[in-house]
Amino acid sequence: MKKLTMIAVDLGAGSGRTMAGCYDGSRLELVETHRFPNEPVMVNGSLYWDILRLYHEIKQGILKTAGMGYKADSIGIDTWGVDYGLLDANGDLLGNPYHYRDNRTDGMIETAFKLCPKKQMYERAGLQFMKFNTLYQLMAAKRQQPHILDKAETLLFIPDLLRYFLTGVKSTEYTIASTSQLLDVHTGDWDKEMMELMGIPVHIITEIINACTRVGPVREDVLKELNMPSMEAVAVAGHDTASAVAAVPVSGEDYAYISSGTWSLMGIESDEPLINDMTFSRSFSNEGGVTRNKRVLKNIMGLWIIQECRRYWQREGQALSFDEMDRQAEESAPFQCFIDPNDDSFFSPGDMPRKVQAYCERTGQIVPKSQGGIIRCVLESLALKYRAVAEELEHVRGRRFNAIHVVGGGCRNRILNRLTADCSGKTVLAGPVEATAIGNIICQLIARNEVKDLNEARRLVWESFPVDVYEPQHTEAWDEAYHRFKKLTQQEEHQT
């Protein structure tokens, strides 16, 4: 068959890139064609995304892909969740989209609970209560900038917004919408009653379409600008985690996954939402998957803490590579101190090394002084957190699993992969690294009927990309560390 080329636009919370995916009927190849930073912009105390710059970089990625000799037939866009843009009646953007770490949503969860009981909200949406969920962002907009929301005719999540820029078509892809807390988890459609209860105008939402849907051609003016003859836009799994999970090279159900990056999203796949006292009390989310199944998962503040430590040390004049940080961690004594990676103190940017030290001081532990000690503390704490969540997932599902599949950029962290295997006592399979972009591409292949379904796509991933295997070397030292970690985090939860 003719080799097909597709462009995957993968936008993360720190950087973005375009990838050319080439499919010859039996194997898939991936080539990075453009990479660019994606940093928030602070203006008058508010944090925004530079959305027009991101759109410009997408177009640069298309140009560079063509310049490298790839004739792309289609393009798909995936991004982080929850954030959105608003369009007016003319289809023009009403300001830059807010960044999910902006503090305008402080107090909105508590306000929502006054309008609807917490458990009822969970039973309807099935999502973890995170202050950046779209629901709370819109509530904040209603109270703080009603003039903007009053002018809005259309809400589009970030991948839908960027696809609209390319095509002129307004639509909402299911997996990205499922991160918003605006959907009924049981029907997979908008919960208009909840939106009205929270004071959110219902007319701004658009039709929900499934992942792997052909949306239409790229606009003529865009094609002319880029000197392209034609290109089709596909609604892939717009939420980057949904794309990453689609690329997990598995068959069967005997596994959990970790989409590892700035955030670690750890979970299982389920045909139906899992809504019960356990998932409610332990803050599990039921987000949408490519086949309209559910990704039952927990958000863990993953490598963000490491990334922020590195950024702080760089600002202090110490330019450390990740390899150097790993070396320092390896040379540091194990099991000295732990943190709960999901503690609120680690959510915002700032002096992250000091935040780690302050947590250890507050909890009466040894305080790490060296860079290596801080890094070791964070990595061990992440492994311990994964073990805790794995146990909860097994309880929720009602049976054990033997393997953890780690996908995404975080699977490059060999120390964390090894620690995770040793701590959990489970085989860790790390890869593919580019799972999100691969998931994006296979959604395009399914949409174009080049690959039959997700099962066939996952076999293609297994045959096309390497996976590293880490067998557990479980020790009593990890059991003792886990006991300390559980006691520590439970005490912290009780105090808060």
Account of the protein in words:
With 496 residues, the chain is of the alpha/beta class. The protein has two domains: 4-238, Nucleotidyltransferase, domain 5, CATH 3.30.420; 250-431 and 466-496, Nucleotidyltransferase, domain 5 (2-Layer Sandwich), CATH 3.30.420. Helix content is 41%, strand content 19%. It is built from 19 helices and 19 strands. The chain has helices at residues 51-67, 108-115, 118-125, 134-144, 146-151, 158-167, 174-177, 192-197, 220-226, 240-246, 277-281, 304-315, 322-331, 352-362, 371-397, 414-424, 435-447, 454-464, 476-495, and strands at residues 4-11, 15-23, 28-37, 41-43, 46-48, 74-78, 84-87, 154-157, 172-173, 208-209, 213-217, 232-235, 255-260, 264-270, 285-288, 294-300, 403-407, 427-430, 468-470. The strands form five sheets. It has a seven-stranded mixed beta sheet, with helices on both faces. Strands 3-2-1-6-12-11 form a six-stranded mixed beta sheet. It is globular, with a radius of gyration of 22 Å. The model has no long low-confidence stretch (mean pLDDT 95).
Low-confidence stretches: none
Sheet with the most strands, sense and barrel status: 7 strands, mixed
Structural class: alpha/beta
| Average pLDDT level | 95
CATH structural fold name of the largest domain: Nucleotidyltransferase, domain 5
* The CATH superfamily title of the largest domain: ATPase, nucleotide binding domain
Tally the beta strands: 19
- Integer-rounded radius of gyration: 22 Å
- What's the arrangement of strands in the largest beta sheet? 15-16-14-13-17-18-19
Number of domains: 2
**Percent helix range:** 40-55%
Oligomer: single chain
Q: Into which percentage range does the β-strand content fall? A: 15-25%
